[in-house]
Design brief:
The protein is α+β, with helices and mostly antiparallel strands. It is 24% helix and 34% strand. It has 6 helices and 18 strands. Strands 3-4-5-6-7-8-9 form a 7-stranded mixed beta sheet. Helix 2 (74-88) links the parallel strand 5 and strand 6 (102-107). The protein starts with 6 loop residues before the first strand and ends with a helix.
Amino acid sequence: MLSSAALRKTGSGWEFANEEALEDFVEVHLQSLLGLTVIKRQFTVNEQRCDIIAVDENKRLVVLELKNGEDRYVVQQLTRYYDALLEHKPFADRVDYDRPVRLIAIAPKFHRDNFTDRKYHQLFFNFFQLAVIQNQDKFYLHFQDIDTQETSQIDIPYREIDYSKSDDSIPPPPRLILDWLGSWTAEDEDKFLKIRQQILRFDNRMQEIIEPKSIKYGIPKTKPCAELYFHRKSKEIIFFLWLPIPNRTKQAIARMQVHTNLDVYWQFSHVPEGLYKETKHKSYFKLREYEYKNGRSVRIITAEDFVVQDLDGLVAQALNTWQKRL
């Protein structure tokens, strides 16, 4: 798991793109922030789902609830987690249940009801306030203990993307794409945006369709051409193209997951839905591969219908295929 984060700009500053993005970042940096070791994330016990279960250096159980905004009921949530965990005592090989359980809430802002609930509770709750701070072109997570006022700060690998000089003939990238791209390198960002321009310039009927977890290109519901999906754990944008299946006597168009992490050749997998899993999806095609013979690279073409030089060529194949289907 990477240490970068997906952020979004608000009217007053910056915040994590969603609660999952916040959990991703805190999970990776929990040792630096609080000296804790993660045992399990999104752990369910007695129908209660805990954001993060961790231990300190003395095997003391620590339960963390994270919020990406203000919430009135965090004390009640942690109370239910506490009760369920003590009833079942999971991870007994890593947790010393003779020690008191530590309950932690992390949020950018705490509602006044949280303090009232904590004041009259038999258990004690640690409140930590977080903020995403921008200083010129750098981003930081500011972390503060509400009770002791102790603070810490961690770099967030993220860049604010400026599209003021972008091509006027193409609409600016939607907010969802900006959230994704901020944790990429400038080189990878440029490659991706060129592909987006290539798709949107191709035909005035091409639409950019925003969905909760992905962005599709084509005509809604009937004629898809490409799809982008953000993989939360790897912080990668997964790319799909609708392409003819190679080596078929009768042409069939299918959703293909493109594997673009290889510089030497491009590969794609037939994935009808979701993401590629090697144990589930066996259709795997290499467009171009290189092997060394007599000290030089020799090109091998294993899918003759897809003779392309690079990803741009593969996108062009998908665009032409899409246009023929209209």
